Amino acid sequence: MQKEEFDFWQEHSLTFLEMAFTTDRQEKMAGPDGHGKKTGDCGDTVEFFVILDNDRIKTMSYMLDGCMHTNACANTIIKMAEGKSLNQVWEITPETVADYLQTLPEDHFHCAELAVGALYLALSDCRENSNMPWKKLYK
Fold first, then answer.
1. Would the CA dihedral through 25, 51, 139, 126 be positive or negative?
2. Phi and psi torsions of 61, nearest 5°
């Protein structure tokens, strides 16, 4: 009985592969308007940095200590969030991230949950900093 082989490159969508292997947005921003960091039960850590232009996300970056599935989710979130209002970005869910990627394995859905959780922390921080701008000076 032959064992069926898994061909990584053929089993994933082009979108997933692009998001999983892109690292050009990995950087720690100085003086962001919002910052969120979350570590999952798996040990992966995602950290988002957000720069606003009024109530819109002008640019984002991330730092990652994790697997390529979490990297794919972080890149997807940035692609979905930039240029949108904070209220629109709050609508990003783990399901929308997984749908965008098309082939995120079910056993790595927690990577989308982790990345979205870090995003929500960054959005909360943006809101807090806009309500109390003096706090940003002390971070």
1. negative
2. -145, 175
Distance separating alpha carbons of residues 67 and 44, to the nearest angstrom? 7
The one-letter code for the residue type at 80 is: M
Pick the closest to residue 102 from 14, 22, 7, 9 (CA basis): 14
Structural domain boundaries, residue 37: 16-138
Q: Tell me which residue of 75, 69, 77 sits closest to 19, measured CA to CA.
A: 75
pLDDT digits (tens, 9 = 90+) for 109-137: 999 999 999 999 999 999 998 877 666 66
Angle between helices 94-101 and 109-131 (to 10 degrees): 130
Alpha-carbon distance of 87 to 73, in angstroms, equals 20
C-alpha 66: how far from its chain's center?
12
- Tell me how many domains the chain contains: 1
pLDDT of residue 6: 66
In this structure, is residue 2 part of a structural domain?
A: no
